[in-house]
Amino acid sequence: MNASSDLQATLDSSRKSWVESANDPASDFSIQNLPFGIFSDRRSDARRAGVAIGDQIVDLAALQAAGLLNVSTQGDVFARAVASDTLNDFIALGRDAWRSVRIQLSTLLARDTATLRDDTALRAKVMVRQADAQLHLPVQIPGYTDFYSSKEHATNVGSMFRDPKNALLPNWSEMPIGYNGRASSVVVSGTPVRRPNGQLKLPDQERPVFGACRKLDIELETGFVIGAGNALGEPVACADAEAHIFGMVLLNDWSARDIQQWEYVPLGPFNAKTFATTISPWIVTLDALEPFRVAQPVQEPQPLAYLRHDGEHAFDIHLEVRLRPQLAKQASTIARTNFRHMYWTMAQQLAHHTVSGCNTRVGDLMGSGTISGPTDDSYGSLLELTWNGKKPLELNEGGTRTFIEDGDELTLAGYCQGDGYRVGFGTCVGEILPARR
Ligand code: CA
After folding, report:
1. Ligand 1 centre and the CA of 165: distance in Å?
2. Which residues of this UniProt protein bind Mg(2+) (predicted)?
């Protein structure tokens, strides 16, 4: 078999694993998925690379040390990359290396492969229960950019704050609007998030007051991680852009709406967005997402030439948001939507980002922008779900919400539905702590 048919075999929907939990149709981590992350556990607090399978993690450093995983590199470059505390060095080995690891793991974990399945001592060395592991930020992120690419979201926000008749500004349909975010405050799922303080402009007062945000919100987004950078001055063509993407995560772009509304003119959000951005710990590769590729929405007007690409560049990813108040037993699902609604594609975002000559680096994170669907239960922010607080949401166990309260836990979840299996992202969770006084 050649490399491309080996890669195709990793996507075979009939392939099952000897890790039985991976064969549960509701598991996010089927053998078709194999997402990459960074973990530590009770045996070793050293952070290292792992791949999720069912309720387990495959320890890539241990597998390499056992002689069961190899990528040909100079000296021990591969061994050091998988034993590193971030995935950057592994990702920098290039797409052929990621694909080779994917193919080797898919074979080792397949039900018919006895190597690990029948060797208890070896399994004890290389398999870790997710329940016994701690997950860490998977990449060191040199730069974070956030886009604004959902037509429904941009239309809703424009209707609320400007004019429902001209909700979209003229530039929106011509380019993926974005801004440079703050990489230093990107945190991994599970990290508590403190409510920010800042300048608030109350309607009945001439000058702003300083205080805790009163309109704390989520933004349901996905993010993509750069797998191959581009040099300064060398734009990435739209047709080549997907080859520069390692994979995707769920991303919560926490937003302080009251701080944002006062500060955003003329340069865009600043303190309203910089206090925290949460991402899910597992990076799902574009290779694993390939069976879920679908057509993007029709773009009218036709984009300028540098933003055109042939073929299908959207992905069918079910997404939802859950809110659990501090003392509640159950979370309430407050929104359900799908990534396929996004107007601008990831390829167009990257082509536009670099067309000026701006360089990107391995590990750079690009947020999709809030993902809102066409119906009022498919919006990706409380701002839209409650129409800026005018329509409170009813929660399962009683009570309502307009914006986030202290102690609330917000969870993003997402998966692609295959035939009897899922390629999922796990969850992206954050609990809100009271503001500093
Ligand atoms: Ca955003």
Report:
1. 23
2. 253, 273, 277
Query: Where, residue-wise, is CATH 2.30.30.230 in the chain?
Result: 3-136
Distance 22 CA to ligand 1 centre (A): 33
Cα of 145 to ligand 1 centre, how many Å?
Answer: 9
Q: Which CATH number applies to 144-433?
A: 3.90.850.10
Please give the helix or strand (H or E) that residue 6 lies within, else none. helix 3-9
Measured in Å, residue 151 CA sits from the centre of ligand 1 at: 13
Task: Detail the residues annotated as belonging to a binding site for Mg(2+).
Answer: 253, 273, 277
Task: Determine the distance from the C-alpha atom of residue 130 to the mean position of all C-alpha atoms in its chain, rounded to a whole number.
Answer: 19
- What residues does CATH 3.90.850.10 cover in the chain? 144-433
The angle formed by the CA atoms of residues 303, 304 and 306, to the nearest 5 degrees, is: 110
Alpha helices in 308-391 (DSSP H): 346-354, 382-385
**Among candidates 117, 415, 435, 99, which has minimal Cα distance to 282?**
415
Write down the architecture of domain 3-136 according to CATH: Roll (2.30)
392-431 pLDDT, tens per residue?
999 999 999 999 999 999 999 999 999 999 999 999 999 9
Cα–Cα distance, 394 to 392 (Å, whole number): 7
Question: Which residue ranges are tagged as binding site?
Answer: 146, 148, 162, 219, 221, 253, 260, 264, 273, 277, 370
- Has this prediction a pTM greater than 0.85? yes
Q: Tell me which residues are annotated as active site.
A: 153
Structure tokens at 11: 């996507």
